[in-house]
Each structure stands twice: as C-alpha cells, then as structure tokens.
Write a structure and sequence with these properties.
The chain has about 900 residues and is of the alpha+beta class. About 50% of the residues lie in helices and about 15% in strands. The protein has four domains: about 210 residues, no CATH class; about 190 residues, no CATH class; about 220 residues, no CATH class; about 200 residues, no CATH class. β20 and β21 form a beta hairpin. α9 runs parallel beside α12.
C-alpha cells in the first residue's frame, strides 16, 4: 500500500517537475549508464580472459593425478617410463615433450612464419588424459578419428588458433626448431592432419618420436603425466617413491588459479579504474538531486502543509533516485555487454593479459556479476539521494513558505575535511600486508586512503571559498565595487552549498589529474629506463626459442657466428648476454648474465656499501675438474667501457671453489654481487647488502651471492636478477650466449650494418636484429596501447564531471530568478547581472579547479608511491605534465563559467522581473 501510494505521488507530483528538469536528469542518467557499463564490460573481459586461459591450460594439462618433471635442463630419461609401467598402482603414464618452433606453409614460401608451441605425446597413453589433443574428424560435431592416426611421425595436428594463423589452404607445414644444447636449427616437413580442439595460443601436436627428432631431444622427456589406479591416494603414493636426482613429482598445479593470482592486481586496479566513472557519476546524481530538491522547496513545503508527512516526502525523493538508478543500471548492463562483445571482436579482448584469442566468446549467463554491478548503480543512486531526502524530511515547512529558506541542521562539522585528509595520509602510509595474506598484492589501505582524501577534499571546499573571499577583499578597489560586495555576501552565505555544487567536478577533476600525472610519470620513467637498458646501437638474438625448465628462452647463438661478429669491420664492440632461470628462496626467477656497468643501472635504491674494494678479493691455486690453475680476481667496481668488448674486465672465480679457500671473515667480500629487480626484492624480502643462495640445476653447487643493488624492471612482473657474465660462466661452465649488444663502427648505418651482419650467419633467417631507436619506439607504442583504456576511462570520467558542473551551475542560476528580478528592479542592468554571475562562477570554478589540482596531486602521489609498488612492484619518479594539466584545468574552468553565463541569459530576462510578483 505504501509503495502504491508513493508511485501515485510520483506520477502526479514528481514526474511533471522532473520533465521540466529533463536536461539535468538525463545527464545524471547518462552518468549511471556509463559507470555501470564500463565496470560491467571490464569485468566481462577479465572473466572471459581467465576462462579462456583456464580452458587452454586444462586442455594441455589434462587430468593426471601426478606430474613428473625434471629440474635439469636435459629433462627426464625415457627409462623412467619402464619403472612407472611396472608399478601396479599406475594405470597410465603419458610421456610429454614440449618445445617451440616456427611454422610456415610449404606452398606459400612468401608467408610470414609464426611461432607456435609444439607438444609431442604418445597418443595411446595420453588419449584418456588429454582428449583435447586428439585429432578430430573434419566434420563439425563428429566423433574423434582413429587414435592410431596420431602415431604417424610425418603428420601433425594443429589447434584452431594455429590454423587461423596458417590460413585455410595449407596441406603441408614446415616446422623449424632449434636444439637447446647447441642452438642448431633444423626444418622438418609434415603433412597437415585433422585438427585438435585445444584452446589458447597456436599449438602443434606430434607423435613423441617425431618431436624428439625435431627438438633434438632423443631419449629425453619433459614430463610424464601419471594416472593412478582407482582408490590409490596420490599423496601416499608419492611418499613411497624414491625418484632419481633432479626428478620432481607432485599433483598437477592449478594453472587457472595461478593465473588468477598473477593477474589479480592488474584486474583489481583496472576494475577500480573502470568504477571511477560510476563513483564520479554518483556525485553528479547527488548534485542533481540536491539542486532539484532546492529548486522545489516551496512545493515540498506546500505538500507538507497539505498533509504529506516528512517520511512520505523523503520516500518520494528516494523513489525518484531509485527509478533513475534502476533505469540507468539496466541500460548500463546492456551497454556493458555490447561494449564487451565489440571489444572481443575488434580487439581480441587484449587489455594487457596478452593470452586471449580473437575467436573466444563471452561467458554465458554472468547473472551474478550483472546483479552486482546493477545493484551497485542502484545503491549509489539511493545513497546520493539520502542527504536531499533527509533535508526534505526535516525541513521547516512554515519557514520555507514564508521565503525564509530552509535550515535543516544538516551542516557538517568544519573540522571533518581536515580530519579525513589526515586519515587518508595515515592510511597511505600503512605498510603492505605479509605476502602470505590472500590479498597481499591488493593495496586496500591505499584505496581507502584515496577515498578519505576525496571525501575530505569535498568537505574542505567551504574553506577554499572563504580563502578566496579573503583574497578578493584584498584586491585593490574591491570594497568600493557593488558587484564584488554582492559576490562576497553570496559566497559567504552559500559557502556550505559549494561542496554540493562542486562535488562531481572535484572528484572527476582530481581523479583525472591523478591519472594524468601517474601515466605521465610512468611514461617518463619508462623513457629513462629504456635509455639505460638500450645503450648499444644494435641488438641481436635468435628468432628461434627452446624450452628449458618450463620456460621458453631464445636459442643459443652459434659460436662461429659470435666469432665472426667480433671480427667484423662494421662492429666496434660487442657485449654478450646469457638468459636463464634461477631458483632463489624456493621460487623461479629470470636470470640475466651480462657485463654489469653500475653507472648504467636503472637503480630503484642506493647500492649496498662495501667494506673493501671489490677488486681486493684474490684466490690462488684453484684447480677443479681440470681447470687451469691461475690467479683469479673479482672485478673492480669501475664500469667496463663498451670498447673493451667481451674480453674486457677481470675474470670471476667460481664461488664453489673460491669461498672455501678464504678465511671466514673474508668470504663475504668474495661473494658474487647480484642486482635484483623490485619484484624479486619484494617476493623474497631482500634488501641491498643481504646474502642469499642461487640454485640453477641439479648437480651444480649453489652459489653464494650478496645483493649489491635493486633495479627497476618494467619488462616483467615475475622478478629477475642480474649477475656478471664471467661469474655465470665460471659457475656453470656454460659458454652459450643468447643475445648480443653491438656498437657500430663510426660511419656505419643501422640498415647497412644489419645486412652485413646477417650475411655472416650460416642461417640468416634464424637471426633477429633491431636498432635501439626501433626498440624504443616499439616499447612506447606498447605502453601507449596498454594505457589507451586508461585514457578513455579518464575521458569519460572527466566528461561526466564537466557535465556535472554545467548542470549544477545552470540549475543554481535558474533557481535564483527572483533574486535577479529583484536586482533588476533595484536598477542593476542585465549586463550587470551577467557580470555578477561571471564573477561568481569564476570564483567558484576557480576554487574547484585549484582544489581538484591539489587533491589530484595528492592522489597521484598515492598511486605512484603506494599503489604501483604494492600492486606491480614498479617504482617510478614523479613528473608533472604541466601543459596537459593547464589545458585540463582551463577546460573545466571554461565549461563552468560558460554554462553559468548561458543560463544567466534566460535568468536575467523579463521573466525574471515578473517572477518577483510571486512573492507579493
């Protein structure tokens, strides 16, 4: 009965008034629609990406009970299969070999080769574990073909992503792969068999014998998937086994959960960014509802005199907000669904996760997410109308009818703003939680700090208005000007209302400033990082990849090619680099072995001090496994010049030989210095000066190292370490090289040098080269593309804020018709009224712009110094893009002043003079 009565009141009382305010109501509706749509679309894309990855991981991993893999680079021996087959508790043991290859249509030699993953398997053992890898019949929906077809070593099966890359006419495919040991590449031709249904990136499935030949791993395996007999407990079975050295066995990892953990920070931050528009829109709804209520105060008072209770008036206001929020949420969900569908088709849903295929579809029936975002839009709309509804409920109806205004006693304490700002500052300084916490990589305290700062900034707007009045009084001649006196009295009397009028624009402007400063600072820091990381003229590596310990690395370069590079006349100097994986603290990280020039390091914090020069540690008479006896030195701390080449600098001693020969007090000085990335530092809780151990592979002794420094790594989030190349080679006795930096001889151009150097290779098609300028441009394009969604979200948020200030300014002007009519009666000209409004709006918008700038800079500091380091383990230097900031402020200021002037032309018309008669 109460709802029916409220709906009747809405149809008879509210609807006519809302139609008169159609422009402002449509802006509020648009704000809710855009906010809900952006949040829902981003959630759909993120959830679809995770579903796609989980599907791909499940199709490749299958459903084994136990997975055996090797910690050594050479993999597992085939003899392990015999022992598994003899175990009565083992039902199936499926051998798997993995690698990388370049694929090309043999009938189209001009086509561009593309990289794909290669899986070799025993179809008889693996069919029950990995049914997605089985070749399917050409007809859609038909049963799988005979599994024996997968035993043909001359035939391969491609998944849909690989077929899309290859084209529809291919019948014969050439695969080119490199051997992990030597880097030698070989091409093999296969006939194209029926496709498999494996999801994810391009994939080729071969018989395991053919894969061993292609990848140069005869007699070796990468892993064995084991299914136990029904009733056998996997944990107990594992406890009874005694595996050879270097063999690890465990239940299969949950790759979907691992990806959710890895991308959680990215997804949360993107979701928070997408909700900026909805958060800003809620303040626009608040401003529209507040001004709508203020404009209809006489009508509300009359309804109160006629018998409508305060609770009924409040319910009517809340009903208006509920209908607005409900309609906006429904339209927003529809727009969000359509936006996500368009993004999947046009962009492949690639919002930075990088593993999505263009052919995937949205998860069916995301009703829970739709309810969440729809409910959020409705809740924020109701929350925005709560204060106006309370004002209407408590209003003194008799006082309002007499034209004496409304005093509802809802003013906030003057100290609330500073208290909220201080609370936000304190929350921003809360240290991150321990890594063992479920949401350790989500900076919840920082988000709470930003919310407190936004609310505190809004509450401090009256302080800003009063401060502007103080400055206005000190302006020469202001005390003798009537318009200035009118502006002062209006601002002093309505300083509290300024918070409502400026809430939306203050939030949108401050968030826009924060994102602009953060993205600009990140871009400038990335530019400086590229300057440090790309000092050479050319960078060279193999175009082929090899599988090593579950990671894909670029294939080693042939030694004879490296020698030819050093002796080439177009080369002034070369510097070698070896990429690998290392185990530290039980976790795997990337290892980069190269010449370390500390002057060129993109350091995130100061280097660890040393108690003695690094060159002072000397070993004598070291002889192990036929190594020549010679004096070996740790290198000096002086950076190496590029002109010294690979042979420059002193040789490192292997820690396994060197450290036991020294007194205990001197061993620290002889530990190999490493330089770790910020992500590795945070994962292992290390700091410069700490010591730790590095494990490379079974059979190799661990290496004692000390953390010399921490560097910024914008290329990866998983952590990486640098160590001197000589130290790596002495430790591992591995002379292979993955990448080469090249400084060109004077007078050589990049194009000429690339052609000359490519001609030195026995297989030029296996060489990739790029100059530093090209790499910088590609990196910056990737950065701009990655933050394109940020720019669009920022633009939408700012547009909502600009609409908000335009709506609030025009509504305030139109609500003051009687005041302007009285001023015209008293002799003020129409031009004088326009000047008065221009001065008032300039004062209010100026305060809003300056407050938004200051608040935005504070929010950007939280983003740069708290959110990014905790979420992505990236630090950066703050830089202020003043030209863009000034354009942003000028745009918002101009929009506010112009909207007030446009509304003033109507408010200062003859109708304003006639409106004075309403009070007579």
């Amino acid at each position: 009965m109460g709802l029916a009565r409220s709906l009747s009141h809405f149809a008879q009382l509210s609807w006519p008034a809302l139609r008169y305010q159609a422009g402002r109501q449509l802006l509020a509706l648009l704000a809710i629609v855009l906010g809900v749509a952006l949040g829902f679309a981003v959630h759909l894309l993120n959830s679809t990406a995770l579903a796609e990855f989980s599907s791909a991981a499940t199709s490749l991993q299958g459903q084994p009970d136990v997975v055996l893999h090797s910690d050594a680079a050479k993999g597992l021996a085939e003899t392990l299969l015999a022992s598994l087959a003899a175990d009565p508790d083992v039902q199936l043991a499926s051998p798997i070999l993995e690698g990388q290859a370049l694929a090309q249509d043999v009938q189209d030699p001009q086509g561009k080769p593309f990289s794909l993953r290669v899986i070799g398997w025993d179809v008889l053992q693996g069919a029950a574990l990995n049914p997605a890898l089985l070749p399917q019949a050409p007809a859609a929906g038909s049963a799988p073909t005979n599994p024996l077809a997968g035993l043909d070593p001359q035939q391969l099966s491609l998944n849909p992503a690989a077929l899309q890359k290859l084209g529809g006419q291919a019948q014969t495919v050439s695969l080119r792969a490199a051997q992990a040991d030597s880097g030698q590449a070989h091409s093999h031709t296969f006939s194209l068999g029926p496709a498999n249904t494996a999801a994810g990136s391009p994939l080729a499935v071969l018989d395991i014998a053919a894969a061993q030949v292609l990848l140069g791993k005869l007699g070796r395996l990468d892993r064995v998937d084991v299914r136990l007999v029904t009733g056998v407990d996997a944990e107990r079975w594992l406890a009874r086994q005694r595996w050879p050295e270097g063999v690890s066995a465990a239940p299969p990892p949950d790759e979907g959960q691992r990806m959710r953990d890895i991308t959680r920070a990215y997804r949360v931050n993107l979701s928070m960014l997408s909700l900026m528009a909805l958060f800003t829109g809620s303040f626009l709804v608040f401003a529209v509802m507040s001004l709508s209520v203020a404009q209809r105060l006489p009508q509300w008072a009359l309804l109160g005199v006629l018998g409508m209770t305060g609770a009924e008036r409040a319910r009517l206001v809340l009903l208006e907000a509920a209908l607005l929020g409900g309609l906006g949420s429904v339209l927003g969900l529809a727009l969000g669904w359509a936006t996500a569908q368009w993004a999947l088709q046009a962009l492949g849903a690639n919002l930075g996760l990088g593993h999505l295929s263009a052919g995937m579809s949205l998860a069916q029936g995301p009703w829970a997410a739709a309810g969440l975002f729809g409910g959020l839009g409705l809740a924020l709309s109701l929350l925005s109308a709560a204060l106006p509804a309370l004002t209407v409920r408590r209003m003194p109806v008799a006082q309002v009818l007499k034209g004496l205004g409304s005093s509802s006693g809802l003013s906030t304490h003057s100290a609330l703003g500073p208290v909220l700002l201080l609370l936000g500052l304190g929350l921003a300084m809360v240290p991150p939680p321990p890594k063992t916490w479920p949401l350790a990589d989500v900076p919840l305290a920082a988000y709470a700090a930003m919310l407190c700062m936004l609310l505190g900034g809004i509450a401090c707007v009256p302080w800003g208005v009063r401060g502007a009045l103080v400055l206005l009084r000190r302006w020469p001649g202001s005390q003798r000007h009537a318009l200035v006196l009118l502006v002062e009295e209006r601002a002093r009397d309505q300083a509290g209302e300024a918070s409502r009028a400026l809430a939306g624009v203050l939030v949108s402007l401050s968030l826009s400033v924060a994102m602009l400063v953060m993205v600009g600072s990140f871009r400038d820091s990335l530019t400086q990082w590229l300057h440090h990381m790309l000092p050479a003229d050319l960078y060279l590596r193999s175009s082929l990849q090899v599988q090593q310990g579950g990671a894909s690395l670029h294939a080693p370069l042939p030694p004879e090619f490296l020698a030819a590079l050093r002796s080439s006349s177009v080369v002034q100097a070369v510097e070698h680099q070896r990429s690998d994986e290392v185990l530290m603290g039980g976790q795997r990280f990337a290892l980069l072995a190269k010449q370390v020039d500390e002057a060129q390091l993109p350091l995130a914090q100061a280097l660890a001090p040393t108690t003695a020069p690094l060159g002072a540690c000397r070993a004598w008479g070291v002889d192990r496994e036929n190594r020549p006896q010679r004096d070996q030195f740790l290198p000096s701390s002086q950076p190496h010049s590029p002109a010294m080449g690979q042979e420059g600098g002193e040789k490192w001693a292997a820690a396994a030989d060197l450290q036991p020969t020294l007194p205990k007090s001197d061993r620290l000085l002889c530990q190999i210095p490493v330089y770790i990335s910020e992500a590795l530092r945070d994962s292992l809780q290390l700091k410069p000066g700490d010591t730790t151990e590095m494990h490379l592979r079974p059979g190799l002794p661990p290496l004692k190292v000390f953390v010399r420094g921490v560097w910024r790594d914008y290329a990866r989030q998983s952590g990486a370490a640098w160590m001197p190349l000589d130290a790596y080679q002495a430790w591992t006795q591995d002379q292979r090289i993955n990448e080469v930096k090249i400084w060109l001889a004077p007078g050589q151009t990049s194009r000429q040098a690339q052609a000359a150097l490519r001609a030195l290779a026995a297989q030029p098609e296996d060489i990739e080269m790029a100059d530093s300028q090209e790499l910088r441009e590609v990196s910056m394009k990737v950065f701009d593309r990655s933050f394109a969604v940020t720019v669009w979200l920022q633009a939408v948020t700012l547009a909502i804020g600009v609409f908000g200030i335009a709506a609030s300014q025009s509504a305030q002007v139109l609500a003051r018709k009687r005041e302007f009519g009285l001023l015209l009666h008293l002799g003020l000209t129409r031009a004088g009224v326009l000047r008065l409004l221009a001065l008032e709006s300039a004062l209010l918008c100026g305060v809003g712009c300056l407050a938004g700038l200051g608040l935005g800079l504070g929010l950007s500091a939280v983003l740069i110094w708290v959110v990014n380091p905790q979420s992505f383990h990236w630090s950066m230097d703050m830089s202020l893009p003043w030209p863009r900031l000034l354009v942003l402020l000028l745009t918002v200021f101009t929009a506010g002043v112009l909207s007030a002037l446009l509304a003033a032309r109507q408010a200062a018309s003859k109708a304003a003079v006639q409106s004075v008669k309403e009070d007579w």
